[in-house]
Every structure is written in structure tokens, then in C-alpha cells.
Design goal:
With 505 residues, the chain is α/β, with parallel strands linked by helices. The protein folds into two domains: 27-47 and 326-499, P-loop containing nucleotide triphosphate hydrolases (Rossmann fold), CATH 3.40.50; 55-320, 3-Layer(aba) Sandwich (Rossmann fold), CATH 3.40.50.300. The chain has helices at 25-28, 31-34, 55-67, 78-91, 109-114, 121-130, 154-173, 191-208, 221-229, 239-243, 254-257, 269-272, 278-286, 303-312, 347-359, 378-392, 405-416, 460-467, 485-491, 494-499; strands at residues 142-147, 184-187, 212-215, 234-237, 263-266, 293-298, 317-320, 331-337, 369-374, 395-398, 430-435, 450-453, 477-483. The strands form two sheets. Strands 3-4-2-5-6-1-7 form a seven-stranded parallel sheet. Helix 9 links the parallel strand 3 (212-215) and strand 4. Helix 4 (78-91) crosses helix 8 (191-208). It is globular and about 70 Å long. The two termini are 35 Å apart. Bound molecules: adenosine-5'-triphosphate (ATP). Residues 88, 91-92, 117-120, 123, 148, 150-156, 299, 442, 444, 468, 472-473 line the site of adenosine-5'-triphosphate.
Length: 505
């Protein structure tokens, strides 16, 4: 396994670069890289260019990050701040923590008190900007585009101001709060994310005496209307599912149902605003006539997304972190060249060898290991998982959009939960999950240490999201990318090239 230097995925605008073989002599002559050569489009798909907002628009915010290191310094009503810290403490994986079966052991009082939770850069910036007072018109619509690296705490970056505004409005209006209404909406693209975000929202709403509701494929309309009549403070759903409410007679019009929504979050926004989703997302926003805050949230700003938000919301306020578009520092990135012996071009052999090496490398001692393998195509997933199981005897699950939602949920649960502690003298076990990009977005896998990219991702956006399933919130992690001579000349250099910011001609 040739060690490739770990790299930081900088804002690569139009990543089109000369073809060269990283290990060949020419690569040593960095000079060739200094002067952009004739562009040879990147062979595997075209690396969508990633955009950064103009530096002057965000530099003030970046300076703020160094000055604030406690939630007490941020404008949050006390109950929201306490509920936030409590939920993060409960979900933090303690190194020393002993695990009973697959559920997480409740932390002792001392462990909870020993945990210091500081705001991450994106949380400092978002809470500061979104909670700033509207000087002129109290009801003016403000649109924000939040973008920060994977695993950097974006979920709480948008939930903190959302809960702060809900509680502040309640304190101001007292008990006169109208019943039948929805006050805020969080939109995400997949059922797994609806489930994950709704779990966090529901646990916090309990502490804040608010009502959360998850409207998803397995929800029932009668139950929804009951919750609506009793006031829904935070609704978590997908755009399509929200639009589907239109077909019910009891709803009347979506405009009336969403008349009370003042705060809307579009998470994984680069997905929800791309051509296959934008109609539903836009239709939902158009039906929210009392909107005051709209937050687009993403780990990447592809140029397409940049264009769409500029077109629809030219005055949107950018909130980004200095590490945007970078693979977290804690992640080691390595290439595995399947073209060299003994694999001789067989990627499945290279994959099996990587899994064998991970299984026996002595890391994660005492815990069951879990590895996530990403492929570009669904059919590839099924083929690979069958071969890993039959030929190499792995404990492997394969997941695809064909699976029913509850089947998908049960397959990924062992990867979302804490690592299982092995019984005394129990031999090392390892679970493998083979999937496509369906799970690459936003899923907060717990303590996953190894991700293998069986195929080279077609775009830098996919690369960022897949790699970001490990190394979350400064935890360690490794990403192995299987390459072959066919793409080797480009891909072997990928980590270097994307780290090397091509000087525009
Ligand atoms: N201030 C904090 N301190 C410590 N841990 C935190 C903090 N904020 C969030 N976390 C934890 O970090 C993990 C990742 O958070 P989250 O899922 O919001 O990341 P993200 O930026 O949305 O990632 P992605 O881009 O993949 O969606 C979660 O387990 C969360 O509980």
C-alpha cells in the first residue's frame, strides 16, 4: 500500500490538470506543475469546481472564531444553551467509555461534568450572525449559506439559533402562542437523515418543552394533524414528503399549513438545490409566507449550488469556516494501487487485502471494527458484498436505495451506534458496510475509523462527503482509495494536485 501524503482538499476551481504519473520522474520536476500545462480534463468525470465566497465577506467571521471558546459568550437563552451542551455530552464518544451491548452506557455524573463542550468555528459564526438583531425591519427575510467541513458540528450550528428564536418568541408572546401551526422546518434529503436529525431535535425539545415532529415515509397523517393542532415547533422532513401533504383534503392549502413557519433550514443544501430536487425545495419555500430566516447548510459549495443560490437569493449572507472543502486534518488518506502484484488489476483482491490488513492491524483494540466501503454504482455494491461474503468470509451488509427504509435503517444501525466492546478473550470481529453515495451525506457515523473508496469518486463533492464519514469532530480516521493504472496517472496525483492550488492562467 503506497503511502500517499495526506492532503487538504482546497477550493479547487475547475480541477482540470495535466496527466502525469505521480511516481514517474516528471512528477519530481515540480516545475511542470508550476506552469499550468495544456488542460487535460480529469479522466474520471469532471471534478466539479468548488467555490469559496469572497474572502472579505467572511474574514471578519473567521477572526471571531479565535475570540470565542465558550457557549456562554454567545447569544443563546440559558435553557437552549444547557440543552445543547447536555445533548452533545450524551452523544460524545468517550475513549474510556465501556459499552454494554450496542446501546451506549449512560455516562456517570463525573464523566458528564468532566466533559468540556466548546463551540466549533461554524457554531460560533452561525450563532453570532443569525442571532444578530435586525436593526431596521424586524420581519425582513434573511438568507444565510452555511458551509463547513464534514463532521464540524453544522447540525447544532443551525439548531442553536433555531431553538433560541423559538424560545425567545415564546417568552415575548407569553401564553398567547397560537395552537394549530408549524413554527420551523428542517429539510434534509434522505430518510436516514430525517431520522437522525429528528432524534436530536426530539431529545432537545423534551428539555425545552417544545413539540418536535418527524414527517417521513412511515408517519401517519392522522397523527400528523393531531400534532399540528397542538402546535409543531420543529418539523423535520424531506421536501417531497412535505409537498405530499397537499393531497390531503384536511390540509386545505400548503400555504395555510405553513403560514406560521418563520425559520427554515435546508440541510445538505447542495443536494436539495440541485436540478433533481430544486422544484420541491423551491415550492416548499414559496409556501412559507412568514419566513424570516432561511439557512442553506452544506459541507461543500459546488459551482452549480453557488449559481443557484446567487440567482434566487442574491443577498444571501455567507458563513464559512477557514477549513471549508478540506478533508479534516485527522484523516490519513492513502492510495492502494490495484495494478501492482499480487492484485494485478483486481480491485476486489486489493479490497480484500485492505480489509484483512485493517482487521489484523491492532487498532481499535477490544472493540468490534467497522469499515464503510463506497462504490459509484448500486449494482457494483451487490456484486462486491456477495464476493466479500462468499470468497473472503466477511460479515458484510450491502445497502442501496432499493432497500425499504426500515431495512436500510437496521443495516446501518451498528455503524451509527458506538463500537461494540468485545467480550473477554473474544476474537477480533469486523463489520463491513458496502454502499453508494446514498449514505455519504451527513450521516453521523459514530467512531468509524476506516473508509475505503472502492471506486474513485466522480467529483470532489463526493470525495469530501465519503471521506467525511470518518475523522468526525477531530477524531482519527483513515481513507483508502483503490486506484488502477487506468486512472493511476491522474488519481495517484489527486491528493497532491487538489492540495496544490492550480494558479489560474
Ligand atoms: N461543540 C461540539 N463539541 C463536541 N462535539 C460536537 C460539538 N458540536 C457537535 N458535536 C458532535 O460532532 C458530531 C458531528 O456533528 P454533525 O453531525 O453536526 O457534523 P456535520 O458538520 O453536520 O457533518 P456532515 O457535514 O457530515 O453532515 C456529532 O456527534 C455531534 O454530537
Amino acid at each position: 500500500m503506497n503511502r500517499n501524503i495526506s492532503f487538504r482538499l482546497k477550493s479547487c476551481t475547475n480541477v482540470r490538470f495535466a496527466s502525469y504519473n505521480a511516481s514517474s520522474k516528471s512528477f519530481q520536476k515540480r516545475k511542470q506543475l508550476e506552469t499550468p500545462t495544456a488542460d487535460i480534463p480529469y479522466k474520471i468525470g469532471s471534478y466539479a469546481s468548488l467555490k469559496l465566497p469572497e474572502e472579505e465577506k467572511v474574514s471578519g467571521l473567521h477572526r471571531l472564531v479565535g475570540q470565542i471558546d465558550s457557549f456562554a459568550q454567545l447569544k443563546l437563552v440559558a435553557p437552549v444553551r444547557d440543552a445543547l451542551i447536555k445533548q452533545i455530552k450524551q452523544s460524545t464518544v468517550l475513549r474510556s467509555q465501556n459499552f454494554i451491548s450496542s446501546t451506549k452506557k449512560v455516562k456517570t455524573e463525573e464523566e458528564m461534568n468532566g466533559l468540556i463542550i466548546r463551540p466549533t468555528p461554524i457554531q460560533v459564526e452561525t450563532i453570532k450572525v443569525v442571532n444578530s438583531i435586525r436593526r431596521t425591519n424586524r420581519n425582513e427575510l434573511k438568507v444565510f449559506t452555511l458551509a463547513a467541513e464534514t463532521g464540524s458540528g453544522k447540525t447544532w450550528a443551525y439548531l442553536a439559533p433555531l431553538f433560541h428564536k423559538l424560545k425567545t418568541e415564546e417568552l415575548e408572546s407569553g401564553t398567547r402562542m397560537e395552537k394549530s401551526q408549524i413554527r420551523s422546518v428542517v429539510l434534509v434529503p434522505t430518510h436516514e437523515l430525517v431520522y437522525q436529525v429528528a432524534e436530536v431535535v426530539a431529545s432537545v425539545c423534551k428539555d425545552l418543552d417544545l413539540n418536535a415532529y418527524r414527517w417521513d415515509v412511515d408517519s401517519n397523517f392522522k397523527d400528523f394533524m393531531g400534532a399540528y393542532r397542538n402546535k409543531i415547533d420543529v418539523l423535520v422532513t424531506t421536501p417531497a414528503k412535505l409537498m405530499s401533504l397537499e393531497k390531503y383534503d384536511d390540509v386545505g392549502s400548503l400555504k395555510s399549513l405553513l403560514a406560521g413557519v418563520k425559520f427554515c433550514v435546508i440541510d445538505e443544501a447542495d443536494t436539495l438545490m440541485d436540478k433533481s430536487w430544486i422544484n420541491d425545495t423551491h415550492a416548499v419555500l414559496k409556501n412559507m409566507r412568514s419566513l424570516k430566516d432561511v439557512l442553506f447548510v452544506s459541507a461543500t459549495i459546488p459551482s452549480e449550488f453557488n449559481k443557484v443560490t446567487k440567482k434566487f437569493f442574491p443577498d444571501s449572507i455567507p458563513i464559512t469556516t477557514p477549513s471549508l472543502h478540506r478533508i479534516p486534518k485527522a484523516i490519513e488518506f492513502r492510495n492502494i494501487n490495484a495494478s501492482v502484484p499480487p492484485y494485478k488489476g483486481s480491485k476486489i483482491k486489493a479490497l480484500a487485502q485492505a480489509l484483512y490488513a485493517i482487521h489484523s492491524d491492532g487498532t481499535e483494540l477490544g472493540y468490534e471494527k467497522r469499515v464503510i466501503v463506497f462504490c459509484n454504482e448500486k449494482k457494483e455494491c451487490i456484486k462486491i458484498s456477495q464476493r466479500l461474503e462468499t470468497e473472503f468470509g466477511h460479515d458484510v451488509s450491502c445497502i442501496s436505495s432499493e432497500d425499504a427504509v426500515d431495512v436500510r435503517r437496521s443495516k446501518i444501525l451498528p455503524f451509527l451506534q458506538y463500537p461494540q466492546l468485545l467480550e473477554k478473550n473474544q476474537k477480533q470481529t469486523m463489520k463491513v458496510l458496502v454502499c453508494t453515495d446514498l449514505l455519504a451525506r451527513g450521516l453521523n457515523f459514530s467512531g468509524i475509523r476506516n473508509v475505503i473508496l472502492y471506486d474513485v469518486p466522480k467529483t470532489s463533492v463526493d470525495l469530501v462527503h465519503r471521506a467525511g464519514r470518518t475523522g468526525r469532530m477531530n477524531q482519527g480516521g483513515r481513507v483508502f482509495m483503490i486506484v488502477t493504472d487506468k486512472d493511476n496517472s491522474h488519481v495517484k496525483g489527486l491528493p497532491t494536485v487538489v492540495r496544490y492550488k492550480r494558479r489560474l492562467a
